[in-house]
Amino acid sequence: MPLPTIADLKLQRGQRVLLRLDVNVPLVKGCVANAYRLERSLFTIKALRKKKAAIIIIGHLGQPSGKRLAVASLKPIAAWFSHKLGRSVPLYDPLTKPKDFDLIQDMKPGSVAMLENLRFYPGEESNDVNFASALACLGDAYVNDAFGVCHRANASVDRLACLLPAAAGVLLHNEVKALEKVTVNPQRPLVAVVGGAKLSSKLPLLKQLLTHCDRVLVGGAMANTLLAAMGHAVGASAIEKKLLPQLKKLVRNHKLLLPIDVVSLCRNKECRVARVGHTGKRDINNDIGPMTRQLFSERIAWAKIVVWNGPLGLFEQPEFQPGTFKLARVIAGSRAYTVAGGGETVQAIEQLNLSKKFSFISTGGGAMLEFLAGEKLPGLKALGYYKK
To answer: Has 356 been annotated as catalytic?
Structure first.
């Protein structure tokens, strides 16, 4: 079922809209260090202001776990929105301050305010209905524009959407539309590139992709566990031994492409390129090798759709950047429809100034993974997305 839109809410002038955004962004010295997610939310804010709604931004930052921590305050986020919108965006805490509750009731059409970190309240992460009801009393309607938290059954993502007239924002619509191009009758060949550290966190995704895609290219530290399951020596590379028995069948899937050579860190701190299976006993595989880069590049050039999640190596260190950076450039330069997501993936893309070369960059890491793996996301379910 299509997601409901802001137009479906039929908002009246001055009605208050609780706008759930993903404001969980990095801060440096009390200032927003990466505003990508915040920038993407401005389209929905503009649409709501055009309808003369009073906008109340809600969201979370960090993991304060129900405690009021100064480092987790949303003051820097409110300051960023104030600067970007060219108007004051006050930070309110109406559930503890009656005066703030009154100020929200008196908000003018087109005005924007923000609530303090929702995770200061235990009821947010426990999906408490009473906490959701308290939030619902502040608004007349609800808009979810936070794809990055849609996989979490939190009160502001799940229960709140059931207590007020609810719709998806512009960004959430765009996220789902982009990922549906990968999951619903996609153009073929469809190629997935998967990397990262832990295989266990991406194993459900990997299994789904092997069913759905034409090729799945795997790199990063997680590839070491798969190579070990094939019987290859991986030296001192960290592997998830508990997974090995269940991977015997998976690694025989002809759609799965693993590295054929690697760049390893040797005991003397030097780097060494070796064919797979020839890693030294004390060496650690930290990147895909040049032959693998070429092999993966050829498969990407063959594709009509490419979806990428996770770095292909320890790209934070210059000597292990070539794999991730080479593939980023190849994907960006391909003629395919390209979708990328995940914090480290986006970091690499931005480091190379390639953002505009991708068809779509998702703001959600975990949410993207679960959507592609076929999981039902609580935030989308609350908006009726999975109803036939």
So the answer is: no
